[in-house]
Amino acid sequence: MSTKVKPAPLPPDTVIGGYRVIRRLSAGGFGVVYLAVDAEGQQVAIKEYLPSSLVARAPGELLPKVPPEKLSLYRLGLKSFFEEGRALAQISHASVVSVLNFFRENETVYMVMNYLEGATLQDYIITARDLKGQKVFRESTIRSLFDEVLRGMRIVHQHKMLHLDIKPANIFITDDNKAVMIDFGAAREVLSKEGNFIRPMYTPGFAAPEMYRRDASMGPWTDIYAIGACIYACMQGYPPNEAPQRQDKDRLALALAKLRGVYSDNLIEVVEWCMALDPLSRPQSVFALQKELAREGERRYTKLTVAEKMRLQIDNLVSDTKKTVQKATAPAAIGAKPK
User: Fold this and answer.
1) Residues 212 and 145 in one domain
2) Is residue 318 part of a domain?
3) pLDDT digit string (tens) for 124-179?
4) Neighbouring-strand partners of residue 48
5) Do 146 and 52 share a domain, yes or no?
6) Which of 126, 275, 300 is nearest to 206 (CA)?
7) In terms of CB atoms within 10 Å, which end of the chain has fewer, N or C?
């Protein structure tokens, strides 16, 4: 097989676990999400574990075909997907996608979730950005939105789970204006540890620096970095630079400085705090971050003076020139291993 064919989704009207499939909603590297109805005709979303890099399935078939050499990896992911379902089923919070049921069938696992109507934060950011206003979102909107998300995240962390893929596309805003975290990819985490997998297991811009290193320990601070990056995206309309780029040359403070006067100093500081490259310099718990985000009180808006703006530009030029000179004059290391 030279060209990789994606495994076919279940056909409409297939009945699994007493639910009838209506249509496919979405598909990612780890599975397919369907719109389905239960016995009472209630709409639900069903996620099927079907990793496109490990299985094949012909149209109209139910059973995924797993080549023998990929079986152990497939089972590992399956176990992890099952654990994710079991863990999420114990969490009942308005800001966390609710798992109503999960079951084994067709030699795979299905997770039944409440079907949400609305759009992702990513959709909202793109729409707002295209309207070209001075602000992508109002500060009050950002604070109340992330207050909701953090309430859910606090419960998730209390259950000893990490999300590890928080990004605007995984924050869903329902039609009745509730923010819900979706797509808890615990399966991703396990699969990424097992040798080099099909794609990077992190989303550039939202993944903390420790996610790029195999030996680093993840914790609440890893999700908190991603929250900071999401707030940044709500302010700028674009994701921040990737962590490895930032470690090379960090333009975060510069990008945020340009938002002074548009957003409060406090909100800008919160983003810098969450997105510190050193995990120990970030808020260590959701609670610490919640306290800071909820701080009402008078908000300072410090506009940059013309002199400050010029200084920022000069600083930028100087550091860019230094970089170029260093690169040009760096002696080639003899016998050094290529990175």
Assistant:
1) yes
2) no
3) 999 988 887 767 789 999 999 999 999 999 999 998 888 888 999 999 999 999 99
4) 32, 110
5) no
6) 275
7) C
Please check whether residues 253 and 142 belong to one and the same domain: yes
Residue 190, Cα to own-chain centre: how many angstroms?
A: 16
Instruction: Locate 112 and state its tokens.
Output: 């039944």
Same domain, 104 and 127: no
CB 170 within 8 A of CB 179: no
User: Is residue 175 located within the same domain as residue 212?
Assistant: yes
Give the pLDDT band (50/70/90) at residue 243: very high
Q: Counting Cβ atoms within 10 Å, is residue 181 exposed (0-12), middle (13-18) or buried (19+)? A: buried
Same domain membership, residue 148 and residue 87: no
pLDDT at 337: 42
pLDDT, one tens digit per residue, over 165-184 is 899 999 999 999 999 999 88
Element (H, E) at 125: helix 121-130
What b/e string do you get for 286-312 counting C-beta neighbours within 10 Å, with b at 16 or more?
A: beebbeebeeeeeeeeeeeeeeeeeee
The neighbouring-strand residues paired with 26 are 33
**Do 155 and 261 fall within a single domain?**
yes
Which range is least confidently modeled, 15-24, 26-35, 92-101?
A: 26-35
67 CA to centre of own chain:
30
Q: What are phi and psi of 12, to 5 degrees?
A: -55, 150
Residue 201, domain extent = 118-306
How many domains in the chain? 2
DSSP code at position 70 = G
